[in-house]
Design brief:
CATH superfamily of the largest domain: Ribonuclease H-like superfamily/Ribonuclease H
Distance between the termini: 62 Å
Pfam families: DNA_pol_A_exo1, DNA_pol_A_exoN, HRDC
CATH topology of the largest domain: Nucleotidyltransferase, domain 5
Biased composition (Pro residues): 317-328
Largest sheet: 6 strands, mixed
Number of helices: 20
CATH architecture of the largest domain: 2-Layer Sandwich
Number of domains: 3
Helix content: 40-55%
Domain HRDC: 233-313
Protein name: Ribonuclease D
Strand content: 5-15%
CATH class of the largest domain: Alpha Beta
Radius of gyration: 25 Å
Order of helices and strands: EEHEEEHEHEHHEHHHHHHHHHHHHHHH
GO molecular function: 3'-5' exonuclease activity; nucleic acid binding; nucleotide binding
Length: 414
Amino acid sequence: MDAPCADPAGPTGRDPVPLTEPAEGVPPVVADPRALRQAAAALAGADGPIAVDTERASGYRYSQRAYLVQLRREGAGTVLVDPIALDGHLGPLVTALADTEWVLHAASQDLPCLAELDLRPAALFDTELAGRLAGFDRVALGTLVERMLGYRLEKGHGAADWSRRPLPPEWLAYAALDVELLLPLKDALERELAAQGKLEWALEEFEAVRTAGSPRPRAEPWRRTSGIHRVRTPRQLAVVRSLWEARDAVARQRDIAPGRVLPDTAIVDAALASPDSEAELTALPTFRGRAQRRMSGTWLAAIKEAKALRRTELPEATPPQDGPPPPNRWADRDPDAAARLSAARAALTTIAETNRLPVENLLLPDLVRRTCWQPPADTDPATVADVLRAGGARSWQVALAAEALANALRATAT
């Protein structure tokens, strides 16, 4: 599709053109091996990068699997693939997409579920990350398409239950539109990054996203239960943990989002009330419902298990620290570290503003905190650069930030 010319630094200067249907119509969903082979052959026979997107069922399902995969390549058009109907066997597509550059928006959200299907890019362009590096304040797909290409995408089904079958036609149109303009958007952002002298930075960032391993599981994920700040005692925390783990087991087994099995508010209410019987449990607001009454034996068993723990088995009132404490506690615990962090943040903010970058894209805040909390013995720029590289910073980030960070560490040394 030919996109209208746009001023990369701002709006096109005219009202955006609403885009409600794909230019070539909504293609039929690929849902059998024969159609998959035909679609894979068409993609393999076309040229250029491939736009890729997925639809998941977050908020409805426990798993983060892809329930629809959308692809588009110049010369092949748009392809919609149903990996559920194909039992996840996408071999012809894996072959067709090998050694190609993929274009995704917010790639880190989609790459894990694509990897589950054995789909992995040989090269990557992330339009959301490109927008951030270009200094744009708003980087949602629709916003970037409107800014760079002059079209307005119709949104509205991103949070739908994509595990539903059959998928409604209007959902399929929405899904197809998500890849309709990714390729011209990539071209426009690439030109903008090159004009700003940031294209090499972006390529490093894209490669880091492409090669990133699976995120490390949280040590105590149950501590992220919404409303847990109301829970004060270790025994109550044990109830939260036990109910969270029981809920997680049920959700995993049924492939239902945990919050649909039992809301976080109900877990916290039960921890505070500490019921001893099924009657006391089902007297609590959420547990009165028919579905929760059927599960009351499971929940009561989890509560009793927590109550039976020895004191030494109870969770700590505060989570174990993996790294520095929260910055708001630094001034009391280590005033020198607090001074280092303040100086470092000021220096990095100046660099980020000068280069029209979000400061968090200049250096990860966690890496800055760790470096300031426990700086190297030598705070010369070369040593600080080594510390940043060991922490995962890319070459362009080290080149921009190492000297300023070293100066901040030295300026506050006692």
